[in-house]
Amino acid sequence: MKSNGLTFGIYPLSVAGTPIGLATGPEDNYEKISSALKELKGNAKQLLPRMYAVYMGPETEEKVFNSLNRYKNAGLLGDLTIGCLMEQSLSLEYWLNFVRKVIKEYGPFLESIQITNEPNLSFMDGSKPYVFEALVQGILIAKEEITKNNLKVKIGFGSVPEGEKTIPHFWENLMKIGGDELIHSIDYVGHNFYVDVFEEPLEIEEIAVSVENILRKFRETLNRNGFPTTLPIHITENGWPTGKNPFIQIERSYAKQSDVLEKVVRTVYALRQELNITHYEFFGLRDADSSKDDLFHQFGIMKDDYSPKPAFYTYQKLVHELSK
């Protein structure tokens, strides 16, 4: 059954990925994060924190679980993505055991879990030759663990729009390995996309057209590869940072961020029933470092001191108005 509204979410921490590593800055303040999330949520039923845990092998497991415990204690577990970037020499059983542990320990605090992060992107999880097995087997193990523990956690996996940096024939190869068993084991497919961020600037109406084209193409891709229209799409990452594009040196204003956010969300909302889109999650709550003018440090709708940009109030309004 298709929802009358959207379930909203947001990435609440500060660290952001860049082409050359991570954008970091002042430490996260969990008290201010909690206050900001409550303000954004208002009377809406849900505002999901979208969190990430990256498995790189048994030597990093303790560090990952320490982070997950910190998120749990701060009330920041809702939608969790588990990335798999371990060395290919390791047995896949290490990864599968990690998935089991995460669900057993944190499943009661989760609304949804995404197995692998951007597996069709050639320089993320998709850079690993085992990505298809990690995705499919990870989902099957997650389903088994969720069923065994009588949990109500939705299972899915993510993706990005097809292009120069994606794996050729990803969907066809995924279905050769996963097939109907994969389709019957998932509750959604996620999609990460960023419009007017890394390319030449678009006019506001062009942004709406671009969003619609991306989402229609994604639903068509799913349909073509055997995923039913009844399977929901979750928009799991979308954002528009302020600052300066380091590639073309164009300034990006706070006012434009607010306008783009509203245009994107209202476009998604208008398509939600036709394309069966149930979730929209924004990236992200605060800048990594507001003192640095490159866009990778300024993805937030708040500055790094948690003072709001205009887009904060825009997102708050949209969450209140368009939530299911």
Keywords, separated by commas or semicolons:
two-stranded antiparallel ribbon, 17% strand, TIM Barrel, 8 helices, 324 residues, 40% helix, 8-stranded parallel β-barrel, alpha/beta
Backbone CA Rg: 19 Å
Assembly of the depicted chains: single chain
Parts with pLDDT < 50 across at least 5 consecutive residues: none
**SSE order:** EEEHEHEHEHEHEHEEEHEH
Major sheet: arrangement of strands? 1-4-5-6-7-8-9-12
Biggest sheet architecture? 8 strands, parallel, barrel
> pLDDT average, as an integer?
95
Highest-level CATH class = Alpha Beta
How many domain modules?
1
Q: Which topology does CATH recognise?
A: TIM Barrel
User: What CATH architecture would you give?
Assistant: Alpha-Beta Barrel
Look at the structure and name the CATH superfamily.
Answer: Glycosidases
Global morphology: globular
Measured distance between first and last alpha carbons = 13 Å
Number of helices: 8
Structural class, from helix and strand content? alpha/beta
Number of strands: 12
Give the % helix: 40-55%
What is the strand and helix layout of this fold?
Elements: E1 7-11, E2 16-18, E3 21-23, H1 30-41, E4 47-55, H2 61-73, E5 79-84, H3 92-106, E6 112-115, H4 131-148, E7 154-157, H5 170-185, E8 188-192, H6 204-224, E9 233-237, E10 243-244, E11 251-252, H7 254-275, E12 277-283, H8 310-322
Helix pairs in contact: 3-4, 4-5, 6-7, 7-8
Folded structure, characterized:
The protein is of the alpha/beta class. It has a single domain (7-322), classed as TIM Barrel (Alpha-Beta Barrel). The protein has eight helices and twelve strands. The strands form three sheets. An eight-stranded parallel barrel has the order 1-4-5-6-7-8-9-12, surrounded by five helices. Strand 6, helix 4 (131-148) and strand 7 (154-157) form a beta-alpha-beta unit. Helix 4 runs parallel beside helix 5 (170-185). The relative contact order is 0.17. The model has no long low-confidence stretch (mean pLDDT 95).
